[in-house]
Amino acid sequence: MRFNFREIPDAGRATVRARPILDLVVEGLDIAPQACLLDTGATAIRLGAHVAELCGIDITKSPETKIAVGGALVAARMAIVSLQITKENDAHEWSAPVWFCEPWTPAFGLLGLTGFFDHFQITIAAYDEWFELTPTNA
Amino acid sequence: MAENMAVRRVTIAGQPFVLRRSDVLRTLRNVEPEPISSHFVVVGSRRFPPKQVISEVTGLDRADFTTHQARRTLLRLGFAAGRRGSGPKAGPAMSEAPDESLAERMRDFTGEWIAIKDDEILHASSTPQALVRWLGNHGQKADSVFRVPEDDLAASGLAPL
User: Fold this and answer.
1) Nearest CA of chain B to the CA of A79: how many Å?
2) Chain B 19-58, CB below 8 Å of chain A: which residues?
3) Considering only A27-36, B23-32, B81-90, B131-140, which range has the smallest mean pLDDT?
4) Which of A21, A98, B122, B132 has the most CB within a 10 Å radius?
5) Residue B62: other Cβ atoms inside 10 A
6) Are B157 and A12 in contact (CB < 8 Å)?
7) A95 or B84: which carries more pLDDT confidence?
8) Is B124 on the interface with A (CB under 8 A)?
């Protein structure tokens, strides 16, 4: 599945840099796919704790751990959830551990190594502003 | 905005009204836009169905007038109008025509949660919960949901040094 980079404005900057952003359906909440940035610097998938609440995922029984997001420590609770990406008539669904973090500063989720990068063969063509995902179990 | 465009005397459904652009902006400030099926007008950087706007400012039942009447009236007040899937058409002396990229249009919603569908901003809310509630209540399905970054930290996910 090939996706174009997407422009999201950066307050205070006149120019907009398109980035590899993917919409992720979390636990079947397909009316509101969560925009997520492909982030090789993240060791796993990180989303705001509000996403768990929206999707009805109970993370209260999961032990709280402190993890670093962009250099800041946040409280995170992990749950294994179903994730789905779609592109026109193509869709791919898998399960992966997701760390739901509070507080959550980024404007979108972060797709990291465990649960995302280790699940796809990924080609990123930054010059041409697209990326392509091929599930490794396809 | 020319003064004669900011106020319009119109007759809708047989009733005379004096509509002011400022009144429309004020009335719609705290009104949630309904889903756009086809036509829309841009009021305060948000897209509304024309009939919703006229109904809000006049109190008329929507069955009493047509989309065309509502759209024409709002165009004359200087609001931009358009149709889903095509670029918005500016009204005369239009000052807020968003004939620009989606990213540029998002700047009006800095710090808010937005739902995108077909390169249109479907809705914006102050919280993700309110946004998802709106999607559910209106039977809408977004392509993407996120917060428009308010600063470098939100845009990059980086913490302050």
Assistant:
1) 20
2) none
3) B81-90
4) A98
5) 13
6) no
7) A95
8) no
Q: Is the pLDDT of residue B86 over 80?
A: no
With residues binned 3-state (H G I as helix, E B as strand, rest as coil), the percentages for chain A, rounded to 5, are 5, 55, 40
Q: Do B106 and A8 touch (CB under 8 A)?
A: yes
Query: From the list B101, B132, B149, which residue is nearest A11 (CB)?
Result: B149
- Counted residue by residue, chain B has a size of 161
**Nearest-angstrom CA–CA distance, B160 and A112:** 21
State whether A32 and B146 contact (CB < 8 Å).
no
Contacts of A10 in chain B (CB under 8 A): 149, 152, 155-156
pLDDT, tens digit (0-9, with 9 covering 90-100), for A12-25: 666 677 899 999 99
| Dihedral of the alpha carbons of B143, A10, A46, A105, in degrees to the nearest 10 | -120
Burial class (CB in 10 A: 0-12, 13-18, 19+), A41: exposed
| CB of A116 closer than 8 Å to CB of A109 | no
Query: Among residues B40, B1, B44, which one has the least CA distance to residue B24?
Result: B44
Of A1, A101, A85, A105, the C-alpha closest to A43 is: A101
pLDDT over 80 (residue B24):
yes
Q: What's the CA gap between B47 and B40, in Å, rounded?
A: 6
- The complex's ipTM works out to 0.89
Which residue among A32, A105, A106 sits closest to B115, beta carbon to beta carbon? Answer: A32
Stretch B116-132: mean pLDDT: 87
pTM: 0.72
